[in-house]
Amino acid sequence: MTSTDLRILPRRAGATPAWPLVERNVVVYRRDWVIFVTGFLEPLLYLLSIGVGIEQLVGEFVLPDGRAVSYTEFVAPAMLAASAMNGALFDTTFGVFFKLRYQKVYDGVLATPLRPRDVAMGELAFALMRASLYAVAFVVVMAALGLVSSWWALLAAPAAVLIGFAFGGAGMALTTWMRSWQDFDFITLAILPMFLFSATFFPLERYPGAMQWVVQATPLYQGVVLCRGLSTGALGWDMCVAVAYLLALGSLGLVVASRRFGQLLLR
Amino acid sequence: MAPTATDRHGPPAAGRWRPLAGETLTPSGVPSATVAAVSGLTAATAGPEEPLVLARGLVKRFGDFEAVRGIDVEVRRGEAFGFLGPNGAGKTSTMRMIAAVSTVTGGTLRVLGMDPATDGPAIRGRLGVCPQDDTLDSELTVRENLLVYGRFFGLSRAECARRADELLGFVQLTDKVNARVEELSGGLKRRLTIARSLVNEPELLMLDEPTTGLDPQARHLVWDRLFRLKQRGTTLLLTTHYMDEAEQLCDRLVVIDDGVIVAEGSPATLIREHSTREVCELRFEVDDHEQVAAKVSDLAERVEVLPDRVLLYADNGEAVAQAVHERGLSPRGTLVRRSSLEDVFLRLTGRSLVE
Ligand SMILES: Nc1ncnc2c1ncn2[C@@H]1O[C@H](COP(=O)(O)OP(=O)(O)OP(=O)(O)O)[C@@H](O)[C@H]1O
Ligand SMILES: [Mg+2]
C-alpha cells in the first residue's frame, strides 16, 4: 500500500467524492424514519428505568474529584456512550454487509469515480451523522433530567460521535470478513459483555485486579471514561488517553475497510 | 484444399487456434506510428486519432487460472466494437479491466489515453458501464437510481434531475419513474441500467451482454436505443454471445475463445474470410451424422458435423441441397441459409457458440 492510499481525509472539505454516498443513504432512510427513532429510544428507556427504579436501591457514587453523584448521573454518560456505539455499528455492520454482499450497491458505486476509500468514508460519515443526532438528543435529555453537572457536558455529544467513529470504523473493517449473517453473532457476542462490563453500571474498582486491565482495554470503557468525565465535569488525563485510543481505533478501521473493499470489489 | 470436418475434430480443435500464414492477429489498418506513440505512455488523454481503448498482450489471472491470455484490442472513437465469445471466454474479465474496476495482471492497457492502474477515477468518470449482472440500487426508485448515480459523477442536483427525465424518456420508462427497482421485469431493469450508464454522458459506453435474457421485443428496443447512441457519436464496446446481435450492432469485433482472440474484423469480413456465402443444413434420422457426412463431403467446400445435423459450406447452398437429394439421401430437414458469425465461430474453434 502506498502512502497515497493511506490518505483518508479529503484534501478539500466539501469536495469529498464520498458525499454522494451519504446522500444516497439519506434518500433511503427518509422512507424508514421509524428505524431512526427506535435506535434512539433504546438507551433512553434504559436510562429512565434506572432513574425511576434502580436509583432508589443504590447509594451515591463518589467521583475521582471527591464529589458524590446519584446512580443515574453515574450511568447516564455510559448509556450515551453505548448508544453511540450501537448507532454507529448498525449502519457500518448490518447495513454495509447487506449492500456489499446482497444488494451489490458498491459494485455500481465503484463503476463511478468513487474509490474504495470513498465508500468506506461515505458509509462511516453517514453512520456518524446518525450517531450525532442521537448524541445531541441524548445530551439534551440528560440536561433536562438534571443529569449533568458541568458545562463540559456540551462536549459529551462530540465525544459520543468519536465513540461512533471508533466502533463504526472497527465494525466496518470486521464486516468485510463476514460471509453470512450468522457471522454477526460474533459481533453481538463481543458487544453484549462490553455493554454490561465496561464500567457502565458499576465502577472499575469493583473488578479484581487482572480484570481491570481487560476492562480498560475495551473501546467502550474508554468511551465511558470520556463521556463520564465530561458530563460530570470530573476531568482527568485518562480522558486524553481515551481520545487517542478511539481516534486510533477508528482510523485503523477506516484504513483496513478501505483496503478490504478494494480487494473484494476491484478484483 | 479446404479444411474438412475431420480437420476440425483432430487435435487443433481441442487446442487453440493459431494464426495461419496470411492471417494475422494485428488489427488491420492500424498505423504503427499510433502504437509507437501510445507505447511511449506520454499522452494524458486520448487525442482524436488515438484509440479509446488500446490493449497489448492483456492478461488477467485469478490465482493460477488465466482467464484472459494476452489479447490485443483497439477501439476507435465512434465505432461499435464487439467481443463475441461463448461462456467463460473471458469477455467480462476483459471488460472489467477496461472499465478500471479490475486490476490488470499483465500486458499494457490504455483507456481514453490513461492508465487504469493510476487514473481509475478519471477513466470511470468518462465511461458508461452496463454490467452483465444489474447493479441497480434496489432500495431506490427508478428515478432515484438515476439521480443518485449522477451525483456520484459530481453532477449538480438540478443537472441530475434534468438528465434523469431525459434518459427515462429515451429508454421509455417514463411511466415507471416512481416504481421500486424490484418491481421491474428483466427487460425494464436492463433499460434502466442503460439509462443509468448514460447519466454522465460517457464517451465510451460499455455493455456486457446487453440483451441476454430479454425477449425478442425487448431486445429490439435495446438494439434500437444503442443504434441511436451510435449515430449520436457514442463509442460502443459490447460483449455478446449472440451472433445476430454482433451482426446488427458491431462495426468491428473480435471473436474470443478461452481467453485468446481467434479472429478480428467486421462481421461481413469475418464471414467472407472464414466461411462460404451459404450453408446447407441437413438433419437425418440417424444417431451418428458422421457417416452421412462422409457420403456428401465432396459436395461442399467444407463440412461440419454437429450432434444433430451436418453443415455443408458452399457458395450455392441450393445446388448442394439438390445434389444431396440426387444421391438418394433423404434428410428429415433441409435448410439453406446465408453464413453467419455462428459459422465463423464454429470454423475457428470447432465448437458451437450457444450450446
Ligand atoms: N473472480 C474470479 N475468480 C476466479 N475465476 C474467475 C473470476 N471471474 C471470472 N473467472 C473465470 O474466468 C473465466 C472467464 O470468465 P468471464 O466472466 O470473463 O467469462 P465471460 O466470457 O464473460 O463468460 P459469460 O459469457 O458466461 O459471461 C471463467 O472461467 C471464470 O470462471
Ligand atoms: Mg460475462
Protein traits:
heterodimer, A: 267 residues, mainly alpha, two-stranded antiparallel sheet, 2 strands, 70% helix, elongated, disordered N terminus, B: 355 residues, alpha/beta, Rossmann fold, Alpha-Beta Plaits, 2 domains, six-stranded mixed β-sheet, 14 helices, 37% helix, 23% strand, binds adenosine-5'-triphosphate, binds magnesium ion
Structure description:
- The complex is a heterodimer of chains A (267) and B (355).
- Chain A has one domain (16-265).
- In chain A, 70% of the residues lie in helices and 1% in strands.
- Chain A is built from eleven helices and two strands.
- Chain A has helices spanning 3-6, 19-31, 33-52, 71-102, 105-109, 116-144, 156-175, 184-197, 209-217, 219-232, 238-265, and strands at 61-62, 68-69.
- Chain A has a two-stranded antiparallel sheet with strand order 1-2.
- With 355 residues, chain B is of the alpha/beta class.
- Chain B is 37% helix and 23% strand.
- In chain B, the strands form three sheets. Chain B has a six-stranded mixed β-sheet, with helices on both faces. Chain B has a four-stranded antiparallel β-sheet with strand order 11-12-10-13, covered by helices on one side.
- In chain B, strand 8 and strand 9 (260-265) form a beta hairpin.
- In chain B, helix 11 packs across helix 14 (341-349).
- The longest helix of chain B has 16 residues, at 216-231.
- Chain B is globular and about 75 Å long.
- Chains A and B meet through helix 2 and helix 5 of A and helix 5 and helix 6 of B.
- Magnesium ion (MG) is lined by residues 91-92, 132, 208 of chain B.
